[in-house]
Amino acid sequence: MGIQDIIEGKKQWRAHLARVKALPPDYQIVYKELQRYFFKVGPVELTDGSLLTGIVDFFEEGAAAGKGVLELIGNDVAAFADDLIKDSRTYADLYQESISGKPGTAGE
Length: 108
Fold this sequence. Notes:
Elements lengths: L2 H19 L3 H17 L8 H15 L4 H5 L3 H8 L6 H10 L8
């Protein structure tokens, strides 16, 4: 990864954060909680940026339609987050597989 890649990544992240800040306050709160959860749990797909970008897209559409964030995702934010990554591998899964030596054995 070169310096240009790092600079471009920062530009993209700042643009992403600007989109989040443009959301209504209730959407921002839920987004930040989802982001915190995903950073903690560590789904592997998080590194490509599509998960968080997809959430912002979804939230922007909901806000434009005049819906509250809980109308979109339901009252259980944790269940919504878990459902988004239920089929995703996490870094914990990768670690478990590395110490067991068997792919796909995490959680067994």
